[in-house]
Each structure stands twice: as C-alpha cells, then as structure tokens.
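Sequence in, structure out.
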Amino acid sequence: MASSPMKICSTLLFLLPSIILLSPAISASENQFKLDGKVLELDDSNFDAAISKFDYVFVDFYAPWCGHCKRLAPELDKAAPILAGLNPPIVVAKVDADKHRKLGSKHDIDGYPTLKIFMHGVPTLYYGPRKADLLVQTLAKFVARDVALLNSDSAIKEFIEAAGTNFPVFIGFGLNESVLSDLAVKYKKKAWFSVAKDFSDDIMSLYDFDKVPALVAIHPAYNEQSIFYGPFEEKFVEDYIKQNLLPLVLPISEDSLRLLKDDKRKVVVAIMKDEVDERSRELIKVLKSAASANRDLIFGYVGMKQWEDFVESFGVYKKTPLPKMVVWDGDDEYYTVVGSESIDETNVGNQVSRFLDGYREGSVVIKHLSGPTLAGFLKSQSGVRIGLMLIFFVLVLVLIYTMGKEEPLTVGTRDGRSSTSHQETREQHQDTSKED
C-alpha cells in the first residue's frame, strides 16, 4: 500500500532539522584535512580519518614537556610544505600522546618523540635524521619509484644529487630493470636503486667500470664505491646489495647501530680513545682494507670520547690500553683474540691481520657484555624513561607510607632529612625522552 503524500511530507519535515544539523558535520568531515603544507593536529576523534584519507602520513607522537620534541617541532614545520609538494604527497601530523594516551597506547608509544610513517594505513617506525632538509630527503624515498630509469649522463647526475648522502645508491649500467625490481622493493627503505641505459665513456670513467652490465654501489657520505660484474642471478645480486648497504667501516653511534638490526654478520669493533685523532684515522684506513677482504664481517669503530657507555660494555675503561679490537655478535657475546689484547703503533696492518686470523682459527675468549645488547642500546632511552617513572612511583608510595605511619615523638627524632622532592623527580622524568 503506497504512503500518502501527506505522510511523506510529515516524515521529511520531521527529519529536516536532523539533516540541517548533520550537513555541516558531513561537510566539516570532508574538508577537515587540507593539503596546505601545515602540520595536522590529530587526536582520537580524527586520527583514523586522516590515515584513511592520505596514502602517506608522517606522524610525530610527542609530549609537550619533552625537550627533544620541542626541538623537533620547528623542523617538522619546515619540512611539511616540501613533503606536501611531493608526488604523491606526504602529510605531516602530530599527536599529543601524553594527553591522548589511549591513542598512544594503541600505536605502542612508550617514549617521546616516536616517529612513524603510515603508508596506505600501515605504520613503520622512522629512525632517520630529524633536521628538515635531511628528513625530506629520507622520506622522499618512501614515495619514489622503486627503480629509477636513467637515460642520459645528466639524468644520472641529477639522480645522484637528489638521492643525497643518507643512503647507498645502486646503479645498474646496461642492466635490465627486472634484475633489480624485486630487490629494490625489498630494500627500498635502505637504499636507492636505478638502471642506466644510455651513458657516455665519461660516466664509465667516473664510476670506474670498464664493461657492462655492471652494478655500481655508491656511498656518497663516505666517498666509497664498489663494482659488481655478476653473476646477475638474484641470490648473488642480493648478497652484493646486503654487503654494500653499509660502508666498509661503520662509525658506531646510537643512530648507526640501527643499521645493524637486520644484519646477521658479526661485527669487528675497533675501540679507540678518540675517533678523530691521527692514530685513529690511520687505523681506520687499515680497517677499510681488511673489510674489503672480509665481506662476511662488518667492521666498525667507536671512540671512548664519543660513546663511553657503549665502550665500557666491552670491559674497556680509561686505563685500558687502546686501540683494542673485539668481535661482537650483536647480542650479549663478544670475543677477544688471544695475543691481540691491544694494538700498538708499529705494523698496524700486521696486527689487524693477526687478530682476524686468530679469530677465524678460534683462538678466542668468549665474554659477555656488561651493558645492554644491541636491542638494549636501541631501547636505552625508553628504558631510562620507564625506569625513572618507576622510581617516581616508588618514591611516592614510600612517601605516602611514611606520612601515614605514626611514630611516637621523642626528642631528637626530627633531624630534617628528606628524600628527592616530587618536583625534582618529575623534572627528571620530563626531561627524559625517546631518541630514535
């Protein structure tokens, strides 16, 4: 039976106020996010909508009291308009995870700032640089073509310049794109990939190869390059790529340690007093030669002056004769080589060779780190923060217990002693933040 016109009109009149009230909300939801180059403020009410609307969203989970977060904010403001201009664009957003703790917990935020890039809704932790120009250069990788096609000398030059210095660059000269396509996807976050079809003899001279096909690996930051002439089956190409994701000798720092996370090779660590003094520089040159001949190992160096806590984990202190070499498994074990406890200034090359020979022959003493493992070092900032929070709560509980406990008043019992104040403890807690 059809509804009467009067009934339909009555229904419409009844719903009209709701439609009028809802229409601005619908419009606001559609226009809530504008690609205007500004940093979006997200919270529980709009986070999912933003992640759904944009293919690439770079999110800073921060706390207003965090010193590192305050220093990062202006860098994000500078980077946001440039990233918004990429094709496809990357939107920069921020979440006050200290205020919106439920949202922070949902995304496993345990320290500040925590940076994540959401690609088609899937989050990936960002450990890269935080200065605006370097951040832009790094994030551009996420939206770049997997394998760039280069058809001239000028295109090769422009590609190298645009790639910057934060990642290694692989160029397949005269190589079919299909040789690199799958591996380029697999290692996209760690390197730039390209193939060059047309190039001059000048390019061959510049990159030091004399036949094609050739795969050239370039580390712009370390002024290093190497050449691979095949075989070009995937297994051999992948081995070459993995070996060249790192420079020959890696300066070890909190940032560079993250590069070791997925690498299963053991690490030859040269421990020095100061990375930049003349003796250390000479040792680094020797280590580069050793690294070229021992690609099954990672070579790195660290100075006590630069990172004392890390160095002390290997039982090295200020009175320990340095330089010294150990082999680290990246976990909680390391090996010293019998008869190679330290390196003196005579015949450094021979001493490094003896150390490696002794290691390969098994003439070692197995020891355990006195500090955190690799994972522990990467999480150390979060651990410190969580530790301080626990200390804070324990102190509060002790204080409450002490205040609630009635003791008989006797002469001389009020001596004025006090523990760390709430404010001091809170300041310690607030000043501790998570580094990437």
